[in-house]
UniProtKB/TrEMBL annotation:
Organism taxonomic ancestry: Eukaryota, Viridiplantae, Streptophyta, Embryophyta, Tracheophyta
Record protein name field: 3-hydroxyisobutyrate dehydrogenase
Compartments, record wording: Mitochondrion
One Gene Ontology cellular component: mitochondrion
Chief location: mitochondrion
Alphabetized UniProt keyword annotations: Branched-chain amino acid catabolism, Mitochondrion, NAD, Oxidoreductase, Transit peptide
UniProt-annotated catalytic positions: K191
Cited InterPro entries: 3-OH-isobutyrate_DH-rel_CS, 6-PGluconate_DH-like_C_sf, 6PGD_dom2, 6PGDH_NADP-bd, HIBADH, HIBADH-like_NADP-bd, HIBADH-related, NAD(P)-bd_dom_sf
Entry similarity comment: Belongs to the HIBADH-related family. 3-hydroxyisobutyrate dehydrogenase subfamily.
Domain 6-phosphogluconate dehydrogenase NADP-binding: 11-182
Amino acid sequence: MILSMIHCIQNVGFIGLGNMGSRMANNLIKAGFNLTVHDKNNDALEMFSQMGVSTKKTPYEVSEASDVVITMLPSSAHVIDVYTGPNGLLHGGKLIRPWLLIDSSTIDPQTSRNLSATISNYILKEKKGDSERPVKLDAPVSGSIIAAEAGTLTFMVGGSEEAFLTAKPLFLSMGKSTIYCGGEGSGSAAKICNNLALAVSMLGISEALALGQSLGVSATTLTNIFNCSSARCWSSDAYNPVPGLMEGVPSSKDYNGGFASKLMAKDLNLAVESAKLAGCKYPLTSQAQKIYTELCNGGHDSKDFSCAFRHFYSGMDEPHDN
């Protein structure tokens, strides 16, 4: 068994304090973990410093202060740089302090596997439990900024199952559920598949609602039908893309907040590349990729991905009749 003692996950490093990461880090603080943080954004560091949280100038300094390090970064390139770049987590030769490294970024499975293989060649400065070598988990999340703040994220985890079980208190301090997906890279693969399904679902709902409006059926009526019939899905009943129809979702706030179209485009690029490598057909992935690329090129890259209803399909706002 790798580790079973709760004190081996008490000192946590967190790197990447953006919209998602800052909220995840806050929930770890609320849960009583001893946090050390780093981000390139000095304003983000200052915010945590004012909360009494230890801040560091480099990932390596975070590594030296932590038993576990969590990274939440925008892309594969950022992850590689934080781990292997100058003053990265792996900067100190072949010795490393953290026994567990958790990457919650959404990146391609191959990069995740390669990084796990690299980390397995390192030696712990201090043996933890029965282990002399560090381990890595890929643990991307499903959920919006709202879910990150509320601590209701879902973690999809790949890597050592024993490390996953030991780290579960960390995940459940930031989320409502955590699912073990298999070996290295499987968490990253699951996230890509999840977001592919989400993109296609949102486009399908948006297309159907916009068509309905053009044919004289209100989006309110269609949504009521969808939500009690075979078309029911999250994009319809929890995150509806029609402005004025549902409160508390990005479509009710001019598509601000939520999951940016540029991030969905990035994830669809990962899905296309993964499908090519796997030799799979990907017609819907390819079409979704083109639509979100077009939205981004049209200046809607920072708007929530549900903005496809308005900015691709030209769907209309529809004040909801209470």
